[in-house]
Amino acid sequence: MSHFGACILSCDGPRLSTDEKRLFQDVRPFGFILFARHVTDPDGVYALCQELREAAGHNCLITIDQEGGRVQRLGAPHWRRWHPPLDQVQRAGAGAARSMYLRYALIAHELRALGIDSNCAPTLDVFCEETHPFLKDRCFARSPDKVTEIGRAALQGHMAQGVLPVIKHIPGHGRAAQDSHLDLPRVTASLQALRETDFAPFRALNTAPLAMTAHIVYEALDSAPATLSEAVIQEIRQGIGFDGILMSDDISMGALQGSLGALSTSALQAGCDVVLHCNDTFKERAEVAEACGEMSEAAQRRAEEALAQRVPLAPLDVVAAEAELSRILGGSVYAG
User: Fold this and answer.
1) Does 1 have pLDDT greater than 70?
2) Are 263 and 288 in contact (CB under 8 A)?
3) DSSP assignment, residue 237?
4) Are the beta carbons of 218 and 175 closer than 8 angstroms?
5) In whole angstroms, what is the distance from residue 192 CA to residue 101 CA?
6) Is residue 179 among the annotated active site residues?
7) In this predicted model, what pLDDT tens digit does every residue of 115-142 receive, in sequence order?
8) Chain-wide mean pLDDT for the chain?
9) Out of 249, 250, 273, 277, which one is annotated catalytic?
10) Which of 3, 58, 78, 181 does the annotation list as catalytic?
11) So what's the pLDDT on residue 2?
């Protein structure tokens, strides 16, 4: 059987067009990512997941951004609405790690019921004074050790329900003072400082099944953005020790300049396993898919190892989990 396509793609809406089905059949993407434009009701999301896997021709990964807070694609009335991660950590105090385990176990439980088996969370970025507002309240803490403790619990909550977490934004986005959706941030900290702080949670949690790159220039390592930098990805693989699936952040974000095809090729040549493409037109989606081609042997091995972990480890008593989380938070669990 041929390898998976080295891409994670999206589609235009809650149902596939004939052209989309044909493209996905040809490409066999490693996976897909869902957004608010795909969300109708639980039956509709489940049907779309089935349709995507049928088109891809294998039990592909389907992921989503369901951090909670500002970044969540599923919301009321069908799904829980969450406070930002940092808000929950601050409310939970000493119970922050346990609260985050429960939060992401509940989120993962919802996702699996829909056929979604991955979540682009948790964020392991260490925030600091210069952290851009687009990211800050999505983080857990300004201490690498605290981020590691809470991040480990978040990973465990996902994995207990058979949902593969995606740690982000490797090797660390916290020092970025710009929003990489719009601009290319540059980080001037020394390599020693980066390794001691920003990179530390990713190194401690390097057995995660998937990670998403940061569209950031780390001047201590390279003049190219991390997603396109062989030097940064070597640091991720060797210095941080991450050997799971390395996916780019959205290749169409404003931080990167150039054609989507050329950017996709550059990301794979630098060492990413798969390219994530979230938006744009069908033509641009096809351009990315063609540029990506099939996974390398190493990427295919990592893909198969990751997908094999989509096995729920423990049943979840939802009522008990919500009650415990309410006790830790001292009141309301969910946003209004």
Assistant:
1) no
2) no
3) I
4) no
5) 31
6) no
7) 999 999 999 999 999 999 999 999 999 9
8) 97
9) 249
10) 181
11) 80
